[in-house]
Amino acid sequence: MTSPFDISGKVILVTGSSRGIGRGIAEHLAESGASVAVHARSPEALEEVTAALETAGAKPFGVTADVRDGDQVAAAVEAVVSHFGRLDGVIANVGGAAFGPAATLEVDRFRRQLDLNLTSAFATARAAYPLLRGAGGAIVLIAATAVTNPTPQFAAYGAAKAAAAHLTASLAAEWGPAVRVNCVSPGLVRTEGSFKAVFQSREELVERAGRTTAVGRIGEPRDIALACQYLLSDAAAFVSGAVLVVDGGPTDGPTQRIQRALED
């Protein structure tokens, strides 16, 4: 009997899959038997991830595009369908955060963060929708725990990710029942980038951060990939418009933060 979590044979496009969480998702989906289309903005990055997946035994197809541009992402989706013959799922993973106090944040820089984290997700979903509608497919947007938490010094990023969660619900309502749309909100995940930028390449800081989660560790890209697999699979056939938080569980809440502040 086939498992409802099985995604083998499905054609799935993962944007922003040359590194970090996106790459981890693409690698896991390929290992799970999916036909994966990987994406990067530069040909060099695309060539590297494609070669790595091929070495692991997969047969990926690569596309380049600036997914903030509707025409470019539409052309990329078209190329995927031309290669594989169909499209069953899309993971809109492209995003990024820019540090800066809101009081001095330039409006253009704020707008660029919205484009990178929100417009790109909408453009990807919109380009894929006609093809997914015919296949009864699914879309997964990648947000962040910023969806429900304040993000001082990262106001634009937090606002964009919160909007992505709202967009998820709106698209699910508008495009169902033909296409399911869901969102994954990762907590802190260890990637090459976060290890250097957040943890200063120090393992003891990784361990210290892990103690702030209920499961006792920070996330790995595979944790996010497994959540995506679930939402793309038949196991999630009754799930749409949902935001799945994958953050290991916090060990404290507002009351505990206030208590800690009073003790300091």
Itemize the secondary structure elements and their pairings:
Elements: E1 11-14, H1 20-31, E2 35-40, H2 43-55, E3 61-64, H3 70-84, E4 89-92, H4 107-135, E5 138-142, H5 155-175, E6 180-186, H6 192-197, H7 203-210, H8 221-232, E7 243-246, H9 254-263
Parallel strand pairs: 1-2, 1-4, 2-3, 4-5, 5-6, 6-7
Helix pairs in contact: 1-8, 3-4, 4-5
Would you write up a description of this structure?
The chain has 264 residues and is of the alpha/beta class. The chain has one domain (11-263): Rossmann fold (3-Layer(aba) Sandwich). It is 48% helix and 13% strand. The chain has nine helices and seven strands. It has helices spanning 20-31, 43-55, 70-84, 107-135, 155-175, 192-197, 203-210, 221-232, 254-263, and strands at residues 11-14, 35-40, 61-64, 89-92, 138-142, 180-186, 243-246. The chain has a seven-stranded parallel sheet, sandwiched between helices. Strand 1, helix 1 (20-31) and strand 2 form a beta-alpha-beta unit. Helix 1 (20-31) crosses helix 8 (221-232) and helix 4 (107-135) runs parallel beside helix 5 (155-175). The chain starts with 10 loop residues before the first strand and ends with a helix. 42% of the residues are buried. The mean pLDDT is 95.
